[in-house]
Amino acid sequence: MNIIHISAECYPVAKAGGLADVVGALPKYQNQLDVTCSVIMPFYNNHFTLNNSFETIFSDTLELGSESFDFSIKKSININLGFELFFVDVNELTYKKYIYSDNDTQRFLSFQIATLDWLLSLQEKPDIIHVHDHHTGLIPFMMTQSFKYDGLKYIPTILTIHNAQYQGWFPHHHVYLIPTFNIANIGLLDWGNQINPLATAIKCAWKVTTVSPAYMEELKQNANGLESLLSHESNKCVGILNGIDWNEWNTETDQNLEKNYNINSLVEGKKANKNWLCKKFNLDINKPLFAFIGRLVGEKGADLFTNIFRKALVENDISILLLGSGDKGTENELCKINNKNYNHYIGYNEKLAHIIYAGADFLLMPSRVEPCGLNQMYSLRYGTVPVVSKIGGLKDTIIDISLENGFGITHNNVSVSSVTDAIVRAKVFYNDNEKFNQNRKKIMQIDYSWNKSASDYVALYKTLKN
Ligand code: ADP
Fold first, then answer.
1. Residue 120 has pLDDT above 90, yes or no
2. CB 312 within 8 A of CB 417
3. What is the pLDDT of residue 242?
4. Tens digits of per-residue pLDDT, 47-98?
5. Domain map of the chain by residue range?
6. Which atom belonging to ligand 1 lies closest to the Cα atom of 325?
7. Residues 435, 436, 437, 440: what is their CA dihedral angle, to the nearest 10 degrees?
8. Cα distance between residue 87 and residue 98, in whole Å
9. N or C: which end of the chain has fewer CB atoms below 10 A?
């Protein structure tokens, strides 16, 4: 069975968040099962495309409303990622330094149209088309409604929702950008008087998955306007927990770390990485180090960080280190925290993220919305105790230390006091050195790799082909 994943992000080519990690790992694990997976994504102007070689395998011109754009499909040739990787190069639209901007309608439509034009030209079509998030959400619609893609009509489609907050809305007067379709079904494009690619994909895909079972349930109550649609379509929806790439995220081989370690050498290994962080960020190695890594947005609770950090630092003998970027107001507020036990790196830094997972004692994730969350899984794998809100994938993956088999710290609400209370509990746990170290060993062995989830997806594909 041949599966093609269509996505705006894929690690290590282009990453803004968890979507890239998933699309960069899931196909690799699926290829170890009895299916063949490849990925197609836009050809951005970035470090990866500048430093690798590509072969053009298809060229054509696509129509976007009244405009025409030449495009090519490229294949990467000198790198083995565990799956074949294809790119859509619509020079004027995709070849930019950024992944996302404020107005991406034309960009992602051209990506989707070029992908379908190419798939239509293939002698051997894929057996399943797996689209990810709103950037590829019009594909299931175009395949079934646009006359030119009649040849793809019967290929099953799967949509995975990584984040339902972002839906790719654009106004109805841009409908002319979509290849001519059966106008009787124009309603499939609409949700709330706008064209809504995510809603359209939920309506048109054969199956819809979310990245954790708890998120699937939460979306029926809170999905940025899509609640009733998801409840209505619930028969074709299923939550499959994301995994992490155990080879990429491996404390014994991770090239980013100051010192590699395993369960037996975890105390020295983590200490060496913590030492590096504390030197670099001028923090005291003897205090428990709490870290945050991620996008500085409301979903992650970032608007509360300044107040949480100030209160936690006054009440506890701890250090806090933050790596992230996002909302400019939050970034400015964080820069104003003047405390010798706090520091940050505003920006994106993959290497630093790895060292933080290794060197921190606790990872903070006070998220309001967390479809799956990968950071808590990386943190477990690196022996760092997650302190998380009980939401979405965090609820599915972290058990509080007060419960049987517990290993993390969880809190119910996302408020300054609930997070600082959780930090106090974490600090007490840290002070019990023996128990704390035993727990670190235990969490390093929890298997949240893709092994199970990759086969859950394959089982789902098989239900569509029978
Ligand atoms: P989301 O996709 O909502 O941003 P996830 O937890 O699913 O959150 O995935 C986040 C991924 O992005 C993780 O691999 C995390 O390490 C990485 N990440 C987020 N922000 C940064 C940053 N500023 N620097 C380095 N890595 C980051």
1. yes
2. no
3. 96
4. 999 999 999 999 999 999 999 999 999 999 988 999 999 999 999 999 999 9
5. 2-243+451-465, 266-447
6. 23
7. 120
8. 16
9. C
Whether the pLDDT of residue 435 is over 90: the answer is: yes
Query: Are 2-243+451-465 and 266-447 the same fold in CATH?
Result: yes
Report the nearest-CA residue for atom 26 of ligand 1.
Answer: 350
CATH code that applies to domain 266-447: 3.40.50.2000
Residue 466: predicted pLDDT: 62
- For 216-235, the pLDDT digits (tens) are 999 999 999 999 999 999 99
Give the residue whose CA is nearest to atom 7 of ligand 1. Answer: 18
Beta-carbon contacts of 80 under 8 Å, excluding residues fewer than 6 positions away, are none
Coil, strand or helix: which one is 61? strand
Instruction: Give distance in angstroms: CA of 327 to centre of ligand 1.
Output: 15
| The total number of residues written for the chain in this structure | 466
Of 418, 427, 430, the residue nearest 308 (C-alpha): 418
Per-residue pLDDT of 298-309, as tens digits, reads: 999 999 999 999
CA distance linking residue 5 with residue 205, whole number of Å: 14
Using 50, 70 and 90 to split pLDDT, how confident is the model at 31?
A: very high
Ligand 1 atom nearest 163 alpha carbon? 3
Q: Give the residue, by CA position, lying nearest to ligand 1 atom 24.
A: 348
143, 156 in Cβ contact below 8 A? no
pLDDT for 296: 98
The Cα–Cα gap between 290 and 342 comes to 10
Report the nearest-CA residue for atom 18 of ligand 1: 294
Ligand 1 pocket residues where CB is under 6 Å: 17-18, 21, 293-295, 323-325, 348-350, 353, 372-375
What's the CA-to-centroid distance between 18 and ligand 1, angstroms?
Answer: 6
Q: Ligand 1 test: best mutation among 7, 9, 21, 162, most atoms within 8 Å of CB? A: 21
pLDDT > 90: percent of the chain: 98
For ligand 1, the distance from its centroid to the CA atom of residue 189, given in whole angstroms, is 31
Query: What's the mean pLDDT in 172-191?
Result: 97
Nearest CA to ligand 1 atom 21: 294
Q: Could you tell me which CATH class the domain 2-243+451-465 is placed in?
A: alpha beta
Q: Calculate helix-pair angle for 433-444, 266-280, nearest 10 degrees.
A: 100
